[in-house]
Write a structure and sequence with these properties.
Blueprint: E1 2-3, E2 6-8, E3 11-13, E4 20-25, E5 30-36, H1 40-59, H2 62-78, H3 80-91, H4 95-113, H5 115-118, E6 122-128, E7 131-139, E8 142-146, H6 154-165, E9 169-173, H7 180-191, E10 199-201, H8 206-214, E11 218-224, H9 227-239, E12 243-247, E13 252-256, H10 262-274, E14 284-289, H11 292-307, H12 327-342, E15 346-349, E16 368-371, H13 378-381, E17 388-391, H14 397-406, E18 409-410, E19 412-416, H15 420-429, E20 434-437, E21 453-454, E22 457-458, H16 465-471, E23 473-481, H17 484-487
Parallel strand pairs: 1-5, 8-9, 8-11, 9-10, 11-12, 13-14, 13-19, 14-17, 16-17, 19-20
Antiparallel strand pairs: 2-3, 4-5, 6-7, 7-23, 12-22, 15-16, 18-21
The protein binds nicotinamide-adenine-dinucleotide.
Nicotinamide-adenine-dinucleotide binds near residues 151, 225, 281 and 452.
Length: about 500
């Protein structure tokens, strides 16, 4: 059984914690790994190690800091298959889907390679007689990332390449459920030639997270996970004087206008609702057709596609989606389907009771489709994070916008239409951080930034892209006058332009 180590100061270090978590292959339900849950003292030692490396790393010229980043990118490119396999083995997503995740993570490494340009400051000559002023951004020191199970490679890569190229040392606390891809990537990072202690990985649960949030040498925390934990991390981290960006859960709606190309909209919904078994923070979990006719056409086109979804283990090239991540999560998703029926939604396709030959103990849930879901139902209000799509019928465009704006989450949304004016007004009025127009998963590219609104993001900064650079650095503005000004004697009035 694979026993997973921490990575501290450039070395693998076994945790001596007596508490452990089991890691499973979700396709078979067999345990494949043991993950020690690090103690607060172990976390503190990791942070001290990072702090010891931080001063020199922060002073290293940015051009030198990005040289190993180019090598890291090359190594990632050369190992995409192995990384994807490590993801699938513990997460369950298909190999093709895992490759997509790795590719989106590598894009952030590309972006971080451009840090010399991104850190260029601003300079104003002669802001007063013989006085110059300039602003530049400096690293914070040691920063941390706490990441969820659903993108075990990509979400950490949203964080540390940017933080590290900007001059910080990083402590990563990955998800307990699928830690192996992180360790494989850490090994590539080490081979790329970064100094020891620049990237450290410490495994654990709440004890480790609290130790990070409370430690005075951690200056900023990036969190991605569910909303209750995001809110907790934000409150505790900021109370300790840290900068915190905490990205939370989602309930992403897709509006289908009567003029939408229905075939394309259905294709888009299939991938966005059921890809990765619905375990994406940008998954579409609510479809909102406008008008009864559009709704009937949508259900008629969707239902056979959902029934025909190919569910299977990651190794099956024909599989369109894999299992969900754990037995507990499978039970939670199945429980939501039961609740939807009890609450009066119309169950058009029932994903309960799916078993696959040879994988009887896997955590599979079949594609599920509900019609006539209403806003008071828990399957509408809460994030299910499984392959369950709810159709909420709206009478008008305005009603759909109101529905989305009233929802507590504000991560992503999409509209399917052929009408430019409807799309433009939608993008303008909708209270959601990321909007797709005929694009179902509007995940911003690495040189833009990713972030939701409302209870999908706590804090001021979105993640990666230019917002990431701002988050991991602080602004310093220097105003300088050289000898002659001082030689002319002391000045007692508040400085102003003469
Ligand atoms: P989670 O909140 O259970 O766990 C996230 C991290 O928090 C993990 O590292 C975990 O160890 C830690 N954690 C869990 N319980 C904790 C506690 N009580 N105290 C302190 N730390 C704790 O999330 P998950 O199930 O791993 O991931 C799925 C969730 O993440 C979904 O809600 C999904 O929408 C969200 N997510 C959001 C985004 C985004 O960008 N907004 C991206 C990916 C996932």
């Amino acid at each position: 059984m694979n026993r997973i180590s921490n990575a501290v100061g450039g070395k693998l270090v076994a945790s001596s914690s007596s508490r452990v978590a089991a890691v499973f292959d979700p396709a078979t339900g067999t345990q494949t790994g043991i993950l020690p849950l690090s103690t607060a003292a172990e976390v503190a030692a990791v942070i001290e190690n990072a702090a010891a490396a931080a001063e020199e790393w922060g002073r290293t010229p940015v051009l030198k800091r990005v040289r190993p980043m180019f090598e890291f990118k090359r190594l990632l490119d050369a190992n995409v298959d192995a990384i994807a396999a490590a993801i699938s083995a513990e997460h369950g997503k298909t190999h093709a889907d895992a490759l997509g995740e790795v590719a989106r993570g590598i894009e952030v490494v590309d972006f971080a390679c451009g840090m010399p340009q991104l850190l260029k400051g601003e300079f104003s000559r002669n802001v007063g007689p013989d006085v110059d002023s300039w602003s530049h951004r400096q690293p914070l020191g040691v920063v941390a990332g706490i990441t969820p199970f659903n993108f075990p490679a990509m979400v950490p890569l949203w964080m540390y390449p940017v933080a590290i190229a900007a001059g910080n040392c990083f402590v990563l606390k990955p998800s307990e459920r699928d830690p192996s891809a992180v360790m494989l990537i850490w090994e590539l990072f080490r081979q790329a030639g970064f100094p020891d202690g620049v990237l450290n990985v410490v495994h654990g649960d709440k004890e480790a997270v609290d130790a990070i949030l409370d430690h005075p040498k951690i200056k900023a925390v990036s969190f991605v996970g569910s909303t209750p934990i995001a809110e907790y991390v934000y409150a505790r981290g900021t109370a300790k004087g840290k900068r915190v960006q905490a990205l939370g859960g989602a309930k992403n709606h897709a509006v289908i206008m009567p003029d939408a190309d229905m075939d394309k909209a259905v294709d888009a919904l299939m991938g966005a609702a059921y890809g990765s078994a619905g375990e994406r923070c940008m998954a579409i979990s609510v479809a909102v057709p406008i008008g009864e006719t559009t709704a009937d056409r949508l259900i008629e086109a969707l239902a056979p596609r959902v029934r025909a979804l190919k569910v299977g283990p990651a190794g099956d090239p024909a599989a369109e989606m894999g299992p969900v991540v754990t037995k507990m999560h499978q039970e939670k998703v199945l429980g939501y389907i039961d609740r939807g029926v009890e609450e009066g939604a119309e169950l058009v396709v029932d994903g309960r009771g799916l078993t696959l030959q040879g994988y009887e103990n896997g955590y599979f849930v079949g594609g599920t489709l509900f019609d006539r879901v209403t806003p008071n139902m828990s399957i509408y209000r809460e994030e299910i994070f499984g392959p369950v799509l709810s159709v909420v019928r709206a009478n008008s465009y305005d009603e759909a916008i109101g529905l989305i704006n009233d929802h507590e989450f504000g991560n992503g949304t999409a509209i399917f239409t052929r009408d430019g004016d409807a799309a433009r007004a939608f993008a303008d009025r909708i209270e959601i951080g990321m909007v797709g127009i005929n694009v179902p998963l509007p995940v911003p590219v690495a040189f833009h930034s990713f972030g939701g609104w409302k209870r999908s993001l706590f804090g001021d900064h979105s993640i990666y892209g230019p917002e990431g650079v701002r988050f991991y650095t602080r602004l310093k503005t220097i105003t300088a006058r050289w000898p002659t000004g001082i030689r002319s004697g002391a000045e007692f009035n508040f400085p102003s332009l003469k």
